[in-house]
Amino acid sequence: MAQSTSSSSMVKLAVAGASGKMGQLLISVAHQDPQVTLVAALDRAGGPLQGCDAGLPQGLATGVMVSDDLSALEQADVLIDFTRPEASLLHIQACLRHHAGLVLGTTGFDAKGLEAVEAFGRQQRLVFAPNMSVGVNITLKLLELAGRHLSQGFDIEVIEAHHRQKVDAPSGTALKMGQVVAKAAGRQFDQDAVYSRVGHTGARTDAEIGFSVIRGGDIVGDHTVLFAGQGERIEITHKSSSRATYAQGAVRAAKFLMSQPAGQYDMFDVLGLGQL
Known about the structure:
- By secondary structure, the chain is an alpha/beta fold.
- It folds into 2 domains: 11-132 and 243-271, Rossmann fold; 134-240, Dihydrodipicolinate Reductase, domain 2 (2-Layer Sandwich), CATH 3.30.360.
- Helix content is 33%, strand content 22%.
- A hairpin with a 4-residue loop joins strand 10 (221-228) and strand 11 (233-240).
């Protein structure tokens, strides 16, 4: 695969998890984008779309058949992956073999998995972000400001809600929000994050950042960071009503990678928001 150096070049795109909800949204967004050509659609062996056109559920004729053959990445400039950690780790190795960049939105990696992701980013082009939504990333920037100026006298809580089938908790986006606020407020996230309260917990400490998780129905994704002070509170909230925002942001990230050297990037880089 020849790596392009122009952000306006046609992106030869591969999509992982082609039969899933996010996979189908990515296929739809790619199909409509004149700067993107879908060249591969990957799914697990025995998946419902194996051997079928990737756009079949949407009535689209993409000309790309769904396959579990990772050698299809040889044709791709970039793979977009919103699957699960165990699948994503296999995709990382395949991207290295075939010199493909990676836009990774998978969450729930353990420490060893995160090490593998970071190692990939030292060798190849990578955008790794728990949430590709433009709105969520603007919200992170607002949280940076709030965390910096509300570090004293305010208790910080992160509340998130997702659909009943989400398998990891708290969400990657909620964790990222907590990390952004902790850094801005001068707190140690790993020490101060509190994920469970039950029984006689004692009074809340000043430093802790609490997490509350809701799972139910078909909630796409709601996130609120609460800054509770004496006599006032501030809530910064982002609510998603469609996964399309994630797909659009991911395709934007794939285009961004076309003009980048090897390295790990996030959506702040893609959107030109500066570093946290």
